[in-house]
Amino acid sequence: MRSDVQRQFVNCGNWFERRYQTLCDARYPTFKAALNLWLQAGGQTIVETGCVRLENDYGAGNSTILFAEVVGRYGGLLWSVDNHPEHVTLATELTSQFAVCRRCVLGDSVEFLHDRLAEQPEFSGRIDLLYLDSFDYPVATIAARLGCQNEWQLRQRCAGLDDDEIAAEHADLVDPPQRHCLAEFQAALPWLHRGSVVLIDDNHFPGGGKPRLAKHRLAELGWQCVLDSQQTLWLPPR
After folding, report:
1. Rounded Cα–Cα distance for residues 106 and 89 (Å)
2. Element (DSSP H or E) covering residue 163
3. CATH number where 141 lies
4. Which residue ranges of the chain lie beneath pLDDT 50?
5. CA 162 → CA 7, 11, 50, 63, distances in Å?
6. Residue 14 burial (CB count, 10 A)
């Protein structure tokens, strides 16, 4: 059965493409690749940091809904952790339509990954797909500081500049989300394995986006970058 659903998910024109290609826009290729890899490796557990905040908020990915539907169709268990009670309440409500094992948890994502995840009775000790998307990257604040009216102007202003240099110049803005993302990855590392998939959002922004430091650490550990666009997708050393 698993091989059949894998082929169904990969095929062009399938339900996932029809439902999510337009909605996810630039995130669609990396979402689909990550989930294909997860299915093909026999993955069961998805852990997401930062859950859905608004209904139909596909501009921010709406990943909690997407993951819940995938797990509902193919089996598995989804944990989504967020430190805002209203986000957790909304995520619980919006995913209740899917007959899945999903846990929307209130708390700090680093603490959850480091300690509380292991205490969950359903947790197998493995994270098969890790999606890091908490702590928004301050694109609008950086743009305003540089006198840019929007993200497009910011990209034009920073074209050709080194992300590490931009990050160093504006460390007060970019350090908090980048260090938090790195801390999340480090906390999850003991649960990752040879078949795991790591996907991180808010990647292609001046200053390296949310994953800059995490990507440096992934590369140091021998992980391989598979796709690098709006999201960055990584596989472990083989």
Report:
1. 9
2. helix 163-169
3. 3.40.50.150
4. 1, 13
5. 41, 39, 28, 30
6. 13
pLDDT tens for 134-147 read: 999 999 999 999 99
What is the pairing mode between strands 224-228 and 197-200?
unpaired
What is the structure's pLDDT at 30? 96
C-alpha to C-alpha distance for 86 and 55, rounded to whole angstroms: 12
Q: Which structure tokens are listed for 166?
A: 């931009």
Distances (CA, A) of 20 to 14, 23, 31, 148: 10, 5, 9, 32
* Residue closest to 77 by CA, chosen among 60, 95, 59, 61: 95
The reported pLDDT for the residue numbered 1 is 41
Task: Return the SS3 of 52.
Answer: coil
Range of the domain at 105: 2-235
What confidence score (pLDDT) does residue 11 get?
56
The three-state DSSP-derived secondary structure of 85-127 is: HHHHHHHHHHCCCCCCEEEEEECCHHHHHHHHHHHCCCCCCCC
Q: Which residues fall within 8 angstroms of residue 22, CB to CB, at 6 or more apart?
A: none
Q: Do 213 and 179 form a contact (C-beta atoms < 8 A)?
A: yes
The reported pLDDT for the residue numbered 56 is: 66
CB burial readout 52-72, b (16+ within 10 A) else e: bbeeeebeebbbbbbbbbbbb
pLDDT in tens, 166-210: 999 999 999 999 999 999 999 999 999 999 999 999 998 999 999
Residue located via tokens 């859905």: 52
Cβ-based neighbour number of residue 114 at 10 Å: 18
Structural domains counted in the chain: 1
